[in-house]
Amino acid sequence: MEEMVKRLQMFDGIYRGKKVFVTGHTGFKGAWLSEWLIALGADVTGYSDVIPPDPSLFRMLGLDHRLNHIVGDVRDASALADAMSSCEPDFIFHLAAQPLVRRSYLQPAETFQVNVMGTIQVMEAIRGLRRPTVGLLVTSDKCYENRECVNGYREEDPMGGFDPYSASKGCAELAISAWRRSFFQTGSIHRIASARAGNVIGGGDWADDRIVPDCVRALLRSEEVIIRRPDAVRPWQHVLEALSGYLQLGSMLSRNPLPASAYNFGPEIHSCKTVAELVAEVMNHWPGKWREVRDSLAPHEAGLLSLAIDKAVHQLRWRPVWNFKLTVEATVRWYRCVARDGLDAGDCTRADLERYCAAAHELGVEWAKVEG
Ligand SMILES: NC(=O)c1ccc[n+]([C@@H]2O[C@H](COP(=O)([O-])OP(=O)(O)OC[C@H]3O[C@@H](n4cnc5c(N)ncnc54)[C@H](O)[C@@H]3O)[C@@H](O)[C@H]2O)c1
């Protein structure tokens, strides 16, 4: 009971009793975000095209019965506008996307339609709302023109993208910037910002072609994990790190004269590790073997990617909470408990949330401060 009261006060208690509209709520990040928003006392409406096939974190958490679940496509302007206006949200978190680099090579047009036009339809629906709303539009660390440099990308660096997924996120950012300057500044009751997070890991992701789900699928079958790019460096972070950034940005935009713009939410620089280092750390917690398989015909993927987070640290007083080891430990524990040992996914997810919030509180992170 005491823990619940404390949780409701986090992010200055801003989400308590508020209406929050989440697109992509049935996905990996969306399910965690919905779970956290419910814990913060929000009234959540989710809008997604499908519930992913089992194993689905959304279903495991029973979220279809704990929020207002709407099935719809973000490209469907009128269905989206109807859903949003009947919700009358105080906050909108737009996560719906085709988020996979490899699939974007197979479905480039669809990736652009969902990621660019879907984001534009969300902004158009926001323009039609009569009550003030804060819109948080999620893009990606891959939106930057990747020059394979060791420095982390800053928010003002040029947008780009080699593959269709990355370019679609760069284009979504350009559209967000144009819509913000054209429609959401002087005289607008709405505020929109974009959020660029790193490679998130955490329990409950079952997507194809993502390294942690690939490891877990192989480990469950006692097979070798096959790795394509062991030397690729990524900014690994727990899903709760990205979400705490989104929630803090939403909270501060609703209360402060903070400039609505783009924010990076990445890990500390020493969490930018290679895929091989990530897999080795996973296997410290769930022993197994891995093997590199070079595929000369594999489509291009960025080699080196990291994010500078100074802007979020200074303007939002946000910061990463878990280091690389704690991030991997929490992630593997979730899969071991749920996928291997059959424990309840809801209990394990909420236990991670409690542990993460407690660690943030201990560190004195702004959003985790509570009275008493
Ligand atoms: N997972 C990562 O490492 C990562 C990193 C950076 C950015 N992101 C971004 O975060 C967001 C969420 O990613 P995720 O990992 O949870 O992805 P996910 O694939 O698990 O979830 C995607 C969600 O979007 C919904 N969706 C897809 N197409 C839709 C459409 N046309 N209409 C309505 N809903 C649709 C799906 O139903 C699902 O709910 C995406 O915007 C992604 O690009 C993810």
Structural notes for this entry:
- Helix 12 (324-340) runs antiparallel to helix 13 (345-363).
- This protein is an alpha/beta fold.
- 44% of the residues lie in helices and 14% in strands.
- Helix 2 (28-39) links the parallel strand 1 (19-23) and strand 2 (43-48).
- The two termini are 14 Å apart.
- The protein has helices at 2-9, 28-39, 57-60, 77-87, 101-106, 108-127, 164-183, 211-220, 239-255, 275-285, 310-316, 324-340, 345-363; strands at 19-23, 43-48, 68-71, 91-94, 134-138, 191-197, 199-201, 225-227, 233-238, 262-265, 272-274, 290-292.
- The chain is globular and about 55 Å long.
- The protein has a seven-stranded parallel β-sheet, with helices on both faces. Strands 7-9-11 form a three-stranded mixed β-sheet. A two-stranded parallel ribbon has the order 8-12.
- It binds nicotinamide-adenine-dinucleotide.
Distance between the termini: 14 Å
Structural class: alpha/beta
Bound ligands, each once: nicotinamide-adenine-dinucleotide
Shape: globular
Strands, helices and their partners?
Blueprint: H1 2-9, E1 19-23, H2 28-39, E2 43-48, H3 57-60, E3 68-71, H4 77-87, E4 91-94, H5 101-106, H6 108-127, E5 134-138, H7 164-183, E6 191-197, E7 199-201, H8 211-220, E8 225-227, E9 233-238, H9 239-255, E10 262-265, E11 272-274, H10 275-285, E12 290-292, H11 310-316, H12 324-340, H13 345-363
Parallel strand pairs: 1-2, 1-4, 2-3, 4-5, 5-6, 6-10, 7-9, 8-12
Antiparallel strand pairs: 9-11
Bound molecules: nicotinamide-adenine-dinucleotide.
